[in-house]
Amino acid sequence: MSSRFRLPVIIGCLLWFLAGSAAKADDLPVGFLSFDHFKDGYAVDLTNLTQPGGGSSVVSFLDFRSFTLTLNLSNGSSSTTALSSLDPFGDLGTGAIFSVGQVNSATLTGTFFPTTVVLADGSTMTIDPNSVTLLNDFTGPLVAGDFTLINVSTQPRATPEPGTMPLLAAGLLLLVFHSRSLFRLGATFSRDS
């Protein structure tokens, strides 16, 4: 392949690759569900990491009070338990006390609100409103200290971003003109030698 046709093929492949790149979603932690030991027994607690100083990259407060917690018990039954406030920061708990070996797993379901959130860097992101989080779906019962993160899924951002393609095209055109002038300079240099 001659050098005259090689550069357009390379540029075409680069444009195809960049235009065809897929957007991907990210998972951002906003809380965790834990099986905790207390004086009288065990309880399932939800810690809200979107509270002030909570440590989540999502700084918009997400309220988990509308979520439902379903407990799968070791006797084969399941129980839907309401979550009640533990403190003014958004942390919730079952309030119910369980004995050792009584709970096999817990499923938290609900809809996040708001769905457009502010991140720690000041940018905004749209999250998937429907999320489900499972706590330990093992064959055995939950033990003290078992926990799982509660993540929100971000909706993919459109890629490439506006302005990227014109900038890329300008750079490629500059490269083409530069390579042609180098080619002419080389041809002139070889004739003079």
Question: What's the SSE blueprint?
Answer:
Elements lengths: L2 H17 L7 E11 L4 E7 L19 E6 L4 E4 L2 E2 L6 E2 L9 E9 L4 E3 L5 E3 L3 E6 L11 E7 L10 H29 L1
Antiparallel strand pairs: 1-2, 1-11, 2-6, 3-4, 3-7, 5-6, 7-10, 8-9
Assembly level: single chain
Gap between N and C termini, in Å?
26 Å
Radius of gyration: 28 Å
- DSSP strand count: 11
Strand content bin = 25-35%
The level of helicity is: 10-25%
Query: On the 0-100 scale, what is the average pLDDT?
Result: 75
Largest sheet, order of strands side by side?
Answer: 5-6-2-1-11
* Overall geometry: elongated
SSE class: alpha+beta
Q: What series of H and E elements makes up the topology?
A: HEEEEEEEEEEEH
Residue windows where pLDDT falls under 50 for at least 5 positions: 19-23
Number of helix segments? 2
